[in-house]
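dumping this here before i forget
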Amino acid sequence: GHVTMENCSDKAFQIAGGRVTVHDCNALAGADTDGDSIAYYDSGDACTLRDSFSNGISIPLDYTGSGLAIWGGDVEQDRPWTPVYSDGVNDAVSYTAQTARYSWVGHSIEVQCDISPSDIGSVSGAVRIAGLPYPAANIPDIDHSLAASSFAGMNFGGIGRSPLPVVQHGQDFVTIQVEDTVGGTTAVDATQFPAGGRIAFSGRYRIE
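structure:
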């Protein structure tokens, strides 16, 4: 429901017009209160309301007008995620670059990633960058193209062929596509993106 808050003497906040005190929040810690994955939690110093997508609001128990935290909706925030060079079964052993961030933007996730495996271990076949914070919306035939800002050490077999990072519908990983010889695209494999290869990409994909 609609979440509002107020700075009042009993340090309460309101949910859909019904006041919930700190005592009530503590009593409801971890409970599903409306059958829709909305729950209250007491982390020791704050009452938090989040849904299954981690949207929500956190208010310190001694709220005095500062320290409010909001997740999701149209509020942007910056968090890390860990990109993993993988074939879906095997993962790279080590990296020279493995940095990524994400933000909520409405119903989408904005991601940035810089990854370079130094030892790919047993990875073979089509390469994916796993570890996205949330899977893409599972809408048939609607995939999400990101943009590669830089790449190096790739073996695409031709000048002018650039990688296209793609988040396919319903998936929680990025595939790296490249133009093929018949006018389409195909997934880059571990021989084309070997140890020492590097790619940086960014963009948005819809999650609901």
